[in-house]
Amino acid sequence: MRRLTALLATFTLTLTACSSNPTSALKAADTASPIAPAWLGNRVPDDALAYVRIPSFLGLTSSPKDNALGPFLASDTHTDWLNSVLDGLANNVATKPGFEAQAIQWLLRHQRSAIEVMISPVPGAGGTAPGIVLVMQTDINSNTQMNQALSSLLAETVPGVGMPAGLDEDGIGVITGAPVPAIVGFDANAKRMMILAGAGASVERMQTARQALAAIPQITPMSKMQSRIDDSGYGMFAWVNTKNALAMGQMMIPPQYMEPVIASGLDQAESIAFGYGVSNGKTRMSFLADVPQGNGLRSLIPVPNNQLGLSTTAPPDGLLVMSLPTLAEAKAIALATGSISDSEWTDYAATATEMLGTDIEALYSVLSGELLYVTEPVGSYSALAVGNGNRVDTMFSDIAEKFDLTFETRRVRGLDIRHFKIPTMPNDELLDAVETASGDPAVLSFLSIYANIGTHLFWVYDDGYMIFANTPQVLIDRHNRGTTTQLSDWANGSQNQDLTKTLLGGSVSVEGLPRFAHQAYLSSMPFLSDIAGLDLDIWSLPTGDDLNLPEKGAISFGVITADDLLGTELSFEHSPVDIIGGASGAMTGAFVVGIAAAVAIPAYQDYQMRAKVAGALSLAAATKTEVAEFVLTNNRLPGEDDVDRMNTFRTGVADSLEASVTVQPDSGAIVVRMTGRATPLNGRSLVLTPQLYDGVIVEWTCSSDAEPRYLPASCREPSLPDSREVNKTGQ
Q1: 709-722 pLDDT, tens digit each
Q2: How far apart are CA 178 and CA 574, in angstroms?
Q3: How buried is 722 (Cβ within 10 angstroms: 0-12 exposed, 13-18 middle, 19+ buried)?
Q4: Is 487 within 8 Å of 308 (Cβ atoms)?
Q5: Rounded distance, CA 75 to CA 25, Å?
Q6: Which residue, 90, 215, 230, 632, has fewest beta-carbon neighbours within 10 Å?
């Protein structure tokens, strides 16, 4: 067990390698890496239901990839060492106490790739019955050796299961005694083992499957996801064809229970995928959903088009990007989530226009689009894509005139700088405070001083952006130094992070990360060598300078909302340890961007909460129908026995969306209790109460103990006691 723990510790230290330009200082190996990349991933057919890739430990950590350590990992020195480690694990570790399990010994001796599993209709089965295809590369190169290896594995692992006839001359064998038919196919030339299991599995269908999968890899529905998450073939990856899975599920799920899925737009999803691997020169942890814009909640999520056209005086230390919604998008979200009615929106727009002294449409035309926060050598500042700055000046001029505020333009060192002062205390509040003071000289003195304190905003226009900071000196230095680096080039270049379609995203450049990754990997080699019983000549291994490692590395994140893609992504040079174990100096940039993100994220949190409430209410749609039908059929509201039958299935459906739906006996009220993550809605409830007339439900009234700003207008009155406090006190 201790050796297994040690192996897992090494796995954490050496997950993958870092990125940048390769060097030719090392001699490439004459043979390929002993661990092969995934083979099945690029051959998954259109009708497949799911695919999972479980990586080999050494494939994930030590096989060559498209990154800075790639030349070293592909060198003859490292390839020889990796071969020796594999032999040592088979001969030194697999025979030790604690590794007696036959399956573990078999994998240590023979596994030479990730284990790939695909769920797909069995070729030639004449139906949609899914089968399982398992593929793995081995070190075995003859049918005789595979017969011996499989016979030993099956005999000692699963009693009663075996392959008595062995493999025929085509490398195909029948497994007997298994719960479902299972066929083995082995390609001795490629050293590849395939297992086909399922109701339609047979020797003939194994032959058909081998021929179909042996074809040249094609662009498949899974390719888009796989190439973005892990195009190395060595990482962890899972994919589900939700379109096909839902099509099969609809045959078994009653129509009324599909209503919430259709209402949310999830029925339009093509597929989902998640994983950990190397893509585009960076290690990435990603979750992606292929959901084209259409109906339901998906239609409410904006699709940004960030240009990143701003330039900086040098490559920046950090960048945060936030896409602000347009007026039309903000209105659509508010109306669809029920947080405001159409008439209330009209009143809101008129009130905002009157209060601000400028038209709400003009305000949104300035405050929608791409908002940037940049840290670079001259300092930190923000930038808002506004196009023509005259519109901004007009808006601020109108506001300043209405509220008697300071707005001026000064030319300083050849640069026109705008200055706007926002008072700490508005005039009406100041007058109220003076009246309350009742002539007390000390209080009046304090108020007069406090009233003069304000927030100062300075900005200039450049590259189509309003660039603003809390001091003018940053803007002056940026102007005087001149700009050399466009943010789009920096993000797509050294950071290898596409931020054009991110609702919220960012990237920081951290000093020393590539060398940190290099050192961590080198430190793992003696550890693995000791486990395998090898003597490692660590003195001959390349230094960071030998590999020409860059001085800085990247840590990035993004909330992706493209036309047909939703998801989240976190990328780094080497492993998640980079986030906490990188060089301390430039981590200040990460800290600053993190603070900015903490300020920006709450702007979207209310939308998220309203969307969750809307999703929870949609879960009750089928239950409302069920209760109404019960009342119509039985001429009474459901009793305790009746609601028990309703609640058993409804709770399970709702739990997948972080809410439970139950029906109260005798009253017929439907309680939607939101559960799951620690959010302001956790433990809150929505109560839908039926209103009857002549034995028929004519209306449902809604009440809730959640904050009114998260609720649709119909649920704000009357309010309920806080259900979380009630649960605590037991009342």
Answers
A1: 788 877 876 555 55
A2: 42
A3: middle
A4: yes
A5: 10
A6: 215
User: HEC profile for 618-683?
Assistant: HHHHHHHHHHHHHHHHHCCCCCHHHHHHHHHHHHHHHHCCCEEEEECCCCCCEEEEECCCCCCCCC
Packing angle of the helix pair 427-437, 441-452 (nearest 10 deg): 170
Residue 542 DSSP code:
P
Distance of alpha carbon 295 from alpha carbon 276, whole angstroms:
31
Other C-beta atoms lying within 10 Å of the C-beta of residue 52: 17
CA pair distance 408, 419, nearest whole angstrom? 5
Residue-wise pLDDT for 239-277, tens only, equals: 999 887 777 666 666 666 666 666 666 677 888 999 999
Percent of the chain with pLDDT over 70: 76
How many C-beta atoms lie closer than 10 Å to residue 138's C-beta?
22
From the list 122, 117, 84, 109, the residue with the least C-alpha distance to 205 is: 122
Task: Tell me the torsion sign for CA atoms 250, 254, 259, 260.
Answer: negative
168 Cβ contact list (under 8 Å, min separation 6): none
Could you give the CA distance from residue 491 to residue 308 in angstroms, rounded to a whole number?
9
Q: Smallest Cα–Cα separation from 609: which of 705, 706, 519?
A: 706
β pairing state of 670-674 and 454-462: unpaired
Residue 493 has pLDDT above 60, yes or no: yes
In whole angstroms, give the CA distance from residue 582 to residue 513: 5
Q: What are phi and psi of 579, to 5 degrees?
A: -65, -35
* Letter string b/e over residues 669-678, b meaning 16 or more CB atoms within 10 A of that residue's CB: bbbbbbeeee
Instruction: Please give the single-letter amino acid code of residue 668.
Output: G
Whether omega before 718 lies within 30 degrees of 0, making that bond cis, reads yes
In 3D space, the residue among 283, 276, 275, 315 whose CA is nearest the CA of residue 69 turns out to be 283
| Highest-pLDDT range among 29-38, 39-48, 571-580 | 39-48
CB-CB contact of 416 with 392 (8 Å): no
| Number of alpha carbons in the 13 Å side-chain half-sphere of residue 459 | 21
User: Which residues make beta-bridge pairs with 662?
Assistant: 671
The pLDDT, as a whole number, for residue 403 is 74
Residues in the chain: 731
- pLDDT reported for residue 448: 55
Could you give the angle at which helices 255-264 and 602-634 cross, rounded to 10 degrees?
160
Q: Which amino acid is at 626?
A: E
Task: Give the long-range contacts of residues 467-474, CB within 8 A, separation 24 or more.
Answer: 467/310, 467/381, 467/382, 467/383, 468/381, 468/382, 468/383, 468/384, 469/379, 469/380, 469/381, 469/382, 472/412, 472/417, 472/419, 473/379, 474/378, 474/379, 474/380, 474/381
pTM over 0.85: no
Q: Which two tokens stand for residue 72?
A: 């070293």
Residues β-bridged to residue 175: 182
Q: Which tokens in the block code for residue 450? A: 């406090």
State pLDDT tens for residues 56-75.
Answer: 988 888 888 877 777 888 88
460-483 residues labelled b (16+ CB within 10 A) or e (exposed): bbbeebbbbbeebebbbebbeeee
**pLDDT recorded at residue 729:** 37
Contacts (Cβ under 8 Å, ≥6 apart) of 512: 551, 552, 553, 582, 583, 585, 586
Residue 348's pLDDT band (cuts 50, 70, 90):
confident
| Residue among 135, 55, 137, 139 nearest 91 (CA) | 139
Whether residue 436 is predicted with pLDDT greater than 60 in this model: the reply is no
Residue in the structure block whose two tokens are 């769920």? 119
pLDDT, tens digit (0-9, with 9 covering 90-100), for 96-123: 665 556 778 888 889 999 999 999 876 5
pLDDT at 724: 45
